[in-house]
Design a protein that fits this description.
The complex is a heterodimer of chains A (550) and B (194). With 550 residues, chain A is an alpha+beta fold. Helices cover 20% and strands 36% of the residues of chain A. Chain A has nine helices and 23 strands. In chain A, the strands form five sheets. Chain A has an eight-stranded antiparallel barrel with strand order 10-12-13-17-18-21-22-23. Chain A has a three-stranded antiparallel β-sheet with strand order 5-7-8, covered by helices on one side. In chain A, a hairpin with a 2-residue loop joins strand 15 and strand 16. The radius of gyration of chain B is 20 Å and the shape is globular. In chain B, 70% of the residues lie in helices and 0% in strands. The chains are: A alpha+beta (550), B mainly alpha (194). At the A-B interface, helix 1 and helix 2 of A face helix 1, helix 2, helix 3, helix 4 and helix 5 of B.
Chain lengths: 550, 194
C-alpha cells in the first residue's frame, strides 16, 4: 500500500515534469554570452564547417612542445653544423683545384705605400708552410699584390714572425689591420685577413699580396697549390679618404665571399648587399673557416677523430622493463560522480610490470649532443580486484553493467541472468585490462666521459598512441563467466608524457656499444577523459640496448 | 555554393553535429542556436533542483557556460542532450550541496508556506504546481527526490553522489514523498466531495 502510494507520487511528478519545457528569461543568454570567450570572425560556409578546433589542453601542450623541440633542434643543428662543416670537409679529401680567384679590395686612401713598407709587417708567401701534412691548417693571407713580387725573402724578422704563426695549429683569425701612416705625404692602408678559411693543406688560399691601391684596389690570386678556391671581394667606401681615417669607422660597402671547393662539397657564399661594419668580419670568417687540428696538436686531432665517430647516425634496438603506477585524481569537471573513485581505484587496481621492445635512431650533432627518436611499444597491464559494478544507461541509452576503472569505463553485457535495469549491481571476481601503446619518443641526449665508457643523460617526450586494448572480466565464481566489454568509454587514444633518464654506454666494438638506462616517464596529460577521475601513469623503466653506429 | 544566412541557420538547427562543430569553432550564432534549442528542457531540470526560478536561471547559466567550455570533450558517441543534462545536474548538485548541509531539514508545515492558495485537484496539478511543490522541499530532500525519481539512481548511488549514508538517502526520500503526498492531498481536498 505504502509502496503504491510512493509510486503514485513518483509517477505524478515524473509524468508532470519529465520532458517539459519552460523558457528562461532572456537575461540568461546575455550573461552566458558575456562569460564566453569573444566570438571569432564571421561564419564560414556551412558546407565547409571547420572540424572541432581547440582540442584539449594536452593537445595544445603537445603541439607547443613539438614546435619548440623542432625549433631548438634546427637551431642547434644549424649552429653546430656551421661550426663543424669545414671540419668535416677537411677530412673528406683533398682535390686541388685551379679555379680562378680574384680578390679586389679597393681602398680609398691615398696612393699606395711602397712594397718595402708593407714587407715590414707581412711575411712572404714563400715562407708559408708547405703542404706536407694533410691535417695541417692553413692560413689565408690577403696582402697587397705587389708583395707577391717584392716579398722580402731574406728578412729575418719576417721569417721569425711567420714561423711563430705557423706553429699555431689553430689560427682562425680574421684581422683587419690598418696602419695609417703618413710618409712623404702619402697615407698607407693595408688589409690583412689571416686564415679566412682553412684547408687541409697548409697552403695559403691567397698567396698574393698587394699594397692597397685606392684606384685599382687589391687583386689577389690564389696559390697554385691551393686546394680551395676563394673569391673575396671587398670594397671600402670612399667616404673616408683622409690619411687619418680610423679603421673602426670604416665600413665594408659590399662584401661577397665565395668559397668553393669542387669535388669536396665545400661551398659557402656570403653576400651582404648592405653596409657591413668591420665587427661582422670575424663572424664571416667563422662561417667560412673552421678550427682544425694540425699534427702538432694531438688533443685536437683526437677531438677530430672523435667527432668523426660521433657524427654518425646510430640505431639502438632495445628492451625496456616498465614499472607503472597510476596517479588518479578526481575529475572536478565531470558530471555526477561518486567523489571517491580515485580512492577506490587506488585500492582495487594493481599495475603489473611489463616488458616492451623498441628501436631508437639517433643523430649525433656534436660529440656530446644527440637527438634521438624512434618507435617502441609500451604495455600497461592492470589487474582489478573484486568489486561491485552497477547497471547504468550508456550513452546510447542501453542499460548495461558499467565497470569504472582508472583507465576508463567498460560496459559489460553478461549472457547469464536477466537483462539488468538501472541500479542493479553485480560483483566481479577479477578483471584484467591490457593496454598496448605505440610510443614515439623524441629526446635529446648529452654524453659525458670518454669514447669507451660514456655516461649520458636524456630528456624528451613520448607521444603514446593507443594501439590495442584487451579486457577480460570474470564474474562471480558461481557463474564462472568471463565477459569482454561491449563498449568502452573514457580512454584517450593518445597521451603525452615526458622522459628523463641517465645511463651508461660501453663501447663494445668499432660500431657497437652496450647501453643501460634507467628512465622515468612522467605524465604530461591524462590518459583518460570524460570520467569521474583523471589518470596519470607514472613509469619507471630500465632500458637496455645495443648501439649500432653507421 | 554558399548558403544564405537563413538557410544556414536552418541547416544548423537540423544538423546537431554541425551545430556542435560550429559551437566548437566559437561561433556565437551557433552557440545561441544550441542554447535556444536545449535551454527550455534543461531549464525545467534546473528548476527541479533550485528553490526558485531565479536560482534555476543561475544554475542554467553556469551549466551552459560549462557546456560550451567543455564541448570538445563530447565524443559524439551518445546522447548529446544526456551529456548536457549530466553537466546541468552536476552544477545543481554542487550548488545545492553546501546549501543542503547548511539548511536544516524542517518540518513540512514550517517550510511549506507558499502555494497553499493553489487548491487544484490532484488530476489538475499542472507543471507549475508540481514544480512549486518540489522547490519548496528542503534542499537535501529535493536532491534525493530528484536523483531517485528523475535520474533513476539507486540509494547507494545517491549516497555516494551526495556523500551521505544509504540510510539517510532512504530517509530523505521517504520524508520528501510524505511531504509531497500530504501537499498533493491537501490540494485535492477542495475538489473532493465531502
Amino acid at each position: 500500500m505504502t509502496e503504491d502510494l510512493h509510486n503514485d507520487i513518483d509517477d505524478l511528478f515524473r509524468s508532470g515534469l519529465e520532458g517539459k519545457e519552460d523558457t528562461p528569461s532572456p537575461g540568461v543568454w546575455s550573461a552566458i554570452e558575456k562569460a564566453l570567450p569573444p566570438a571569432p570572425a564571421p561564419l564560414p560556409p556551412a558546407s565547409s564547417a571547420p572540424p572541432a578546433v581547440g582540442g584539449s589542453t594536452s593537445t595544445i601542450i603537445f603541439k607547443g612542445l613539438i614546435g619548440a623541440a623542432v625549433v631548438a633542434i634546427i637551431g642547434t643543428a644549424t649552429y653546430l653544423f656551421s661550426s663543424n662543416k669545414n671540419e668535416a670537409n677537411t677530412s673528406a679529401g683533398n682535390q686541388p683545384t685551379t679555379e680562378k680567384t680574384a680578390i679586389k679590395v679597393p681602398v680609398n686612401t691615398d696612393p699606395p705605400v711602397s712594397s718595402t713598407e708593407h714587407q715590414e709587417r707581412k711575411p712572404s708567401a714563400s715562407d708559408e708552410p708547405q703542404a706536407a701534412d694533410n691535417e695541417v691548417a692553413s692560413r689565408a693571407t690577403l696582402r697587397p699584390e705587389s708583395d707577391h713580387d717584392a716579398r722580402p725573402s731574406a728578412n729575418p724578422e719576417n721569417q721569425t714572425a711567420l714561423k711563430s704563426q705557423e706553429t699555431r695549429a689553430f689560427t682562425e683569425k680574421l684581422s683587419v689591420k690598418s696602419e695609417d701612416k703618413q710618409e712623404s705625404g702619402r697615407s698607407v692602408s693595408s688589409i690583412d685577413i689571416t686564415n679566412a678559411l682553412t684547408i687541409r693543406n697548409s697552403v695559403p688560399i691567397f698567396k698574393a699580396a698587394k699594397t692597397a691601391n685606392p684606384r685599382r684596389g687589391v687583386d689577389l690570386v690564389p696559390s697554385k697549390r691551393n686546394s680551395e678556391t676563394a673569391i673575396l671581394q671587398s670594397s671600402l667606401p670612399s667616404a673616408n679618404n683622409t690619411a687619418n681615417s680610423s679603421l673602426s669607422e670604416w665600413k665594408v660597402a659590399r662584401t661577397n665571399a665565395l668559397i668553393e671547393r669542387k669535388g669536396n662539397t665545400l661551398s659557402s657564399s656570403i653576400s651582404t648587399p648592405t653596409t657591413i661594419p668591420y665587427s661582422v668580419i670575424p663572424f664571416l670568417g667563422r662561417i667560412s673557416s673552421t678550427e682544425t687540428s694540425g699534427p702538432a696538436d694531438k688533443s685536437e686531432a683526437a677531438k677530430l677523430k672523435r667527432n668523426n665517430w660521433t657524427s654518425r647516425i646510430y640505431l639502438i634496438p632495445m628492451v625496456s622493463l616498465n614499472m607503472t603506477t597510476m596517479h588518479v585524481e578526481e575529475n572536478k569537471s565531470f558530471g555526477p560522480r561518486i567523489g571517491r573513485e580515485h580512492i577506490e581505484f587506488k585500492e582495487t587496481e594493481q599495475t603489473k610490470t611489463t616488458v616492451s621492445p623498441g628501436i631508437m635512431a639517433g643523430f649525433a650533432i656534436s660529440p656530446r649532443i644527440s637527438v634521438q627518436t624512434g618507435i617502441s611499444e609500451y604495455r600497461n597491464n592492470i589487474s582489478v580486484s573484486p568489486k561491485q559494478i552497477k547497471a547504468v544507461r550508456d550513452r546510447d541509452g542501453k542499460v548495461r553493467y558499467r565497470m569504472d576503472c582508472s583507465s576508463g569505463s567498460y560496459f559489460l553485457d553478461p549472457k547469464a541472468g536477466t537483462t539488468p535495469t538501472v541500479g542493479d549491481s553485480l560483483r566481479i571476481s577479477s578483471s584484467e585490462i591490457r593496454m598496448r601503446y605505440v610510443t614515439i619518443p623524441l629526446s635529446v641526449r648529452v654524453n659525458f666521459g670518454n669514447d669507451k665508457v660514456k655516461i649520458f643523460a636524456t630528456a624528451g617526450t613520448d607521444f603514446n598512441v593507443l594501439a590495442g586494448k584487451q579486457t577480460s572480466t570474470s564474474l562471480s565464481p558461481a557463474s564462472g563467466e568471463k565477459v569482454n566489454p561491449v563498449r568502452t568509454e573514457g580512454t584517450r587514444k593518445q597521451y603525452l608524457n615526458g622522459t628523463v633518464g641517465a645511463g651508461i654506454e660501453i663501447k663494445a666494438g668499432k660500431r657497437l656499444g652496450i647501453m643501460l638506462m634507467p628512465q622515468y616517464r612522467f605524465p604530461m596529460g591524462n590518459m583518460n577523459e570524460d570520467g569521474p577521475v583523471l589518470t596519470y601513469p607514472k613509469t619507471f623503466s630500465v632500458t637496455s640496448g645495443v648501439r649500432i653506429g653507421f | 555554393m554558399q548558403l544564405s544566412m537563413e538557410e544556414r541557420s536552418t541547416s544548423l538547427l537540423d544538423n546537431l553535429e554541425l551545430l556542435i562543430r560550429s559551437c566548437l569553432a566559437g561561433e556565437r550564432q551557433a552557440q545561441n542556436r544550441l542554447y535556444e534549442r536545449f535551454a527550455p528542457k534543461l531549464f525545467v531540470v534546473c528548476q527541479r533542483y533550485a528553490a526558485s526560478r531565479v536560482e534555476a536561471e543561475e544554475i542554467l547559466q553556469e551549466g551552459f557556460i560549462r557546456i560550451f567550455t567543455h564541448l570538445d570533450q563530447f565524443k559524439h558517441e551518445g546522447s548529446f542532450e544526456g551529456w548536457m543534462r549530466r553537466i546541468i545536474v552536476n552544477c545543481a548538485l554542487q550548488r545545492l550541496g553546501s546549501k543542503a548541509r547548511m539548511t536544516p531539514v524542517v518540518a513540512m508545515e514550517e517550510n511549506f508556506h507558499g502555494g497553499a492558495e493553489e487548491n487544484d485537484a490532484h488530476s489538475r496539478l499542472g507543471q507549475k504546481e508540481l514544480m512549486q511543490l518540489i522547490q519548496q522541499l528542503p534542499p537535501a530532500y529535493r536532491m534525493v527526490f530528484n536523483l531517485y525519481v528523475f535520474e533513476g539512481m539507486k540509494h547507494r548511488e545517491i549516497a555516494e553522489t551526495l556523500g551521505i549514508s544509504e540510510g539517510t538517502s532512504k530517509s530523505n526520500l521517504s520524508d520528501a514523498r510524505a511531504i509531497l503526498q500530504k501537499e498533493v492531498l491537501k490540494r485535492q481536498e477542495p475538489a473532493m466531495p465531502k
